[in-house]
Hydrolase (Spirilliplanes yamanashiensis), 300 residues
Amino acid sequence: MAAIDCGTNSIRLLVTDDGTADLTRRMEIVRLGEGVDRTGRLSDAALERTERALRSYAAAIEELGATKVRMCATSASRDASNAADFRAMVRGILGVDPEVISGDEEARLSFAGAVRGLTAAAPYLVVDIGGGSTEFVTGTDSVAAALSVDVGCVRMTERHLHGDPPTAAEVAAAEADITAAVDRALAAVDGRAAATLVGLAGSVTTVAALAQGLPGYDPVRIHHARISYADVARVTAELLAAPVADRLALPVMHPGRADVIGAGALVLRVVMERSGHDAVVASEHDILDGIAYSMIDGTS
């Protein structure tokens, strides 16, 4: 079976047979949500980038013999006025409609992907930092409460962080915006009562790689790594002070993430400050795995 997660910044594919072994796991930065916060629509260029990635994924799905496909699309396609064009394009390539899922469903899938196999103490606060939104989910074996807020690495960069590197005033404006949303989310899901903070998605895993000083991006070293608040604060400050060219030179940095990683790291740092957690457990398993589990478990 094939699971596809199409977010604001990236589109990812997981093909698996039983959820224990990956036949392939791929990611492309397509920036589908580029400009959506300003224009309210998906740009032609963003749709073209996404189409190219989907055609490549469709070829891999056929080659590996996957007979069931589920594609979930998140924040950018929820917000766009031309979402129908996006759905038609996906249907033409994959033969299935993308599910433009609600924030609650996004949270449920992210939580399921993140906590399966996790040995850290429950209850969990799972925070999925995306391009356009961030999901806050609490629970033990299942979701107790969830909220999605419109704070993500692409949205915050486009809204506030215009300099290269951003100015102190720009960072302060982004931090104020993020803090208001984080406080609202933590209150709604009782996030401060959780025993373990689990961080998902590329911003978190990249910060975890940088905090560990890895010579290259290594999912095995990153998955379930425990990163202290001090290290998150240090990496965030370094990223926000560096121009994009310097971020691109970092050996763990995906080229498509370099311009927005400062905002993503800032979201993570604020979450830790406002929730009172002194460490975050980084997870390589997230909504993409949750989509696959939903097909395996028959809950899709």
